[in-house]
């Protein structure tokens, strides 16, 4: 006797078996994806949602969050230090990436040519990237020290007065820009160098035969060819620079007189000095929105240019 | 290759999950199960190797006396507040914790520490602490911490530079202090471009110098109602006096101690400052030849014949509100604040004793008498929960003031407004 639960026909049986197999495969797939999803959810999605929620609360970490609506946002927008920090952040990002891109492309072009000691020099240029920002910042603290630093010792020998690179409001941010550029140069240079290596040699040789010199070949052939990569480097570097904190924290503590206080520094201060997690989260949300808007704007600009 | 369609079943997933959870549970509980019955934890801030070595010996002795095994945790001062704060929020704060001056009210006001008044009442040693230092551990009328050592500020000089300039006596008041700076200045034929160092650092050193001058002018941060009164007459006097050094070219606003290496005084870049035992210790560590020339003078008074005054930054120990064993934690706290332990804390952390019965402690023979004498004139900053935030704002305002970005009166008025916003007054 055939049990009631068994399929009546072989066709139905194989269809059910296929369904069962698909279901099990789907389950296996879900099982394999779950750990990765859990990690992303715990480390990214949940904190992001919590930040958004806390930005509408008064929260000190030690007491329960208390809903305050848009109060944190209005307080931030009324605070003149926020605008100073915004100005500093943008100044840092624009100057670092603006100057940095030119330097990166030039150095990559030199390496792409016949720079003496190529691989060794490439390693030397890349080396700072291997060190953490804290280490690099501490080293530069020593280099820039007005009393015992070698840079001021050299200036002194040349008859100049000491330059207070990190304690003079005029010099503090430019010093951090230079140090950050030095640290990031190698990483972005490698990306641009890889792009330069992929420029078709036939084109360059044809131009050479037509009488174009090295500068003309670089300007009219290499650079237009690698424009997409340079754009990518510029955008990623710029968006990363908007989150500058470590350099300022280690080298100047945001000073002197707020000269190097950035948005992320202000967030840190709000959270861990003022015990105002809500305001810190509101700033984080604002920075997030700024990054999103700027990404879209930059993407639009560069896409339009590429299309043209 | 594994065929998931055959091998994976909901039941087996459930079983694996339960097994994993049980395993994790056992792993997490294991240390507690293995731990001894009587255990405590202690968090100390900024110890050097010598201090850690002493603490380990002291905690072994404590264990022998009481049976409590103590886990020692350490942090640097720079990230200490954040660590205490996040540990409090996550319920992992050590049973007994060291705290800095401004951390105590900030954390006590949020319920992070246990009031210790019931224990203090029956503790004979309580009378031995300097009353203002003991009071500094209170908030809202309750005691939360015991002082273990104090960082007392006073005037400090480089005696070798003073001697070369023909200076015989140390200044006692503001006018004499300024006159000395003028005498040492290259403008007047002296040896230094900027003889006065205002203890500017990457932390709140400038605010500490201003606060010292403020109490010398007879001022304070708040009135009885809690409103900020820095723009009052004493505040203006103090700031105008501080700014005058920079305006007259006797101090350089860009000379900042970076936190490592010799201070400007130890380097010989400056010859006078308003600091603490930190200066001779810095000389000892970075330039031992000049240590004997770093001398402490008396705290200044704002007027000739006036009362000298200064400030002390008092570091303390308190009991976490989350401790599972308050009595055990008190045993540890009282042991660490006892006469012998207090002496070691002061000696190894580079401060002055917080107990009166240690005023003749042997190690003080190696400390300039000027620092010890200054203790009797030392007061403390108000115990407000927002002090951490306020001191940051004051320091930024002072950085602006010494660069003469705005007149002192305008800076102090803006500061009062800002502080009242912070405190909600």
Quick rundown:
The complex is a heterodimer of chains A (308) and B (425). Chain A has 308 residues and is an all-alpha fold.
Tell me the layout of helices and strands.
The complex is a heterodimer of chains A (308) and B (425).
Chain A: H1 10-54, E1 57-58, E2 66-67, H2 71-78, H3 80-112, H4 118-130, H5 133-144, H6 150-157, H7 169-197, H8 201-209, H9 214-225, H10 227-241, H11 246-251, H12 263-272, H13 277-307
Antiparallel strand pairs in A: 1-2
Chain B: H1 4-7, H2 10-34, E1 39-45, H3 49-66, E2 69-75, H4 80-89, E3 96-99, H5 103-108, H6 117-121, H7 131-135, E4 138-139, E5 142-143, E6 145-152, E7 154-158, H8 159-164, H9 174-184, E8 196-197, H10 205-216, H11 233-247, H12 264-267, E9 272-275, H13 278-286, E10 294-296, E11 310-319, H14 326-336, H15 339-349, E12 352-353, H16 369-374, E13 378-379, H17 387-402, H18 408-423
Parallel strand pairs in B: 1-2, 1-3, 8-9, 11-13
Antiparallel strand pairs in B: 3-11, 4-5, 6-11, 6-12, 7-9, 7-10
Describe the structure.
The complex is a heterodimer of chains A (308) and B (425). Chain A has 308 residues and is mainly α. Chain A is built from 13 helices and two strands, in the order H-E-E-H-H-H-H-H-H-H-H-H-H-H-H. Chain A has a two-stranded antiparallel sheet. In chain A, a hairpin with a 7-residue loop joins strand 1 and strand 2 (66-67). In chain A, helix 7 packs antiparallel against helix 10 (227-241). The longest helix of chain A is centred in the first third of the chain and has 45 residues, at 10-54. In chain A, 30% of the residues are buried. In chain B, helix 17 runs antiparallel to helix 18. Chain B is globular, with a radius of gyration of 25 Å. In chain B, 45% of the residues lie in helices and 14% in strands. With 425 residues, chain B is an alpha/beta fold. In chain B, the strands form three sheets. In chain B, strands 1, 2, 3, 6, 11, 12 and 13 form a seven-stranded mixed β-sheet that branches. A four-stranded mixed β-sheet of chain B has the order 8-9-7-10. In chain B, helix 3 links the parallel strand 1 and strand 2 (69-75). The mean pLDDT of chain B is 90. Classes of the chains: A mainly alpha (308), B alpha/beta (425). The interface between A and B is large, with 31 and 40 residues.
